[in-house]
């Protein structure tokens, strides 16, 4: 590498030039042409349109930490699907027409739609299901070998056995666990079965009856949970799916109405008043998406960037909901929680 220092240059000027170069580097963005504002397209599958929404707030924080300022050196086109799966393909095609430099896409279904829409625009998928390889998104986690990279949703669904342990700790008198499943997620059925099996095994290990209940339409949820609630000692695990996420407020309300201690795997249910959640931190995965974006804008190819698996899991407890259900959360559990909502 050629030195930028010349013998005739005053040392103070050299140090100032060197320091200035380091400070300017993050904002310059090596892949960015001089004077060009980079354009990024973001597909948000379910989360509400709000700058303070935790996942997008984390993504924006990630951008800022890397020197990207929206409206200055980067323009972000946000598209909100609000849980409507039919919009994924439409929004991906729209971002292709806008000729964005990179797409950042939440969840596996929108990521798959984006991949079908373009094989040339780099795509950063966030929480692309528990097995992006089986879903046909990437060739392997170590080497995606396509225009898509990013993060998976879990390292495996076995951690759902932890749901039963947490329910039993929060509500010691429960005698049964119902697992609310979304049968429409047919593509992820093998992963769903793994999750279901882990929860069933955990329930049986502590002497709890276990039942699987499923619904294809939201209007059935009330009657299904009413039946579960009529059985003494009932509790509930809600499967993580875009369908249930889209109805998060209603599902948490219905579970509370029927007196069911419920646990969820995604933070959106806690923002809707859920009792408890345990699972990968989506906010952390969205924050890390900014790192992938930065690498790609600086010249890295998605095909060469390994897909990350989540390393940060979070436990969140809502004391207000617990009180409404007549539950007293053990102090030891509160100490282990990453966040306690009061």
Question: What can you see in these coordinates?
Answer:
- With 342 residues, the chain is of the alpha/beta class.
- It has helices spanning 11-28, 54-65, 86-97, 108-117, 161-170, 189-205, 221-230, 242-246, 248-257, 268-271, 282-297, 319-324, 331-336, and strands spanning 38-44, 74-80, 102-106, 123-126, 148-150, 176-181, 209-214, 236-238, 262-264, 276-280, 313-318, 339-341.
- β9, α10 (268-271) and β10 (276-280) form a beta-alpha-beta unit.
- It is elongated, with a radius of gyration of 23 Å.
- It starts with 10 loop residues before the first helix and ends with a strand.
Structure described in brief:
The chain has 342 residues and is an alpha/beta fold. It has helices at 11-28, 54-65, 86-97, 108-117, 161-170, 189-205, 221-230, 242-246, 248-257, 268-271, 282-297, 319-324, 331-336; strands spanning 38-44, 74-80, 102-106, 123-126, 148-150, 176-181, 209-214, 236-238, 262-264, 276-280, 313-318, 339-341.
What global shape is seen? elongated
Q: Any idea of the CATH class of the largest domain?
A: Alpha Beta
Which class of secondary structure composition applies to the elements?
alpha/beta
Q: Percent range for helical residues?
A: 25-40%
Please name the fourth-level CATH homologous superfamily of the largest domain.
Response regulator
**Which strand order do you get reading across the main beta sheet?**
7-6-8-9-10-11-12
> Rg to the nearest angstrom?
23 Å
Largest sheet: 7 strands, mixed
The tally of domains stands at 2
Number of helical stretches of at least 4 residues: 13
Contiguous uncertain segments of 5+ residues:
1-33, 186-190
What's the CATH topology name of the largest domain? Rossmann fold
Oligomer designation: single chain
CATH architecture annotation of the largest domain: 3-Layer(aba) Sandwich
Count the beta strands.
12
How far apart, in Å, are the first and last alpha carbons? Answer: 57 Å
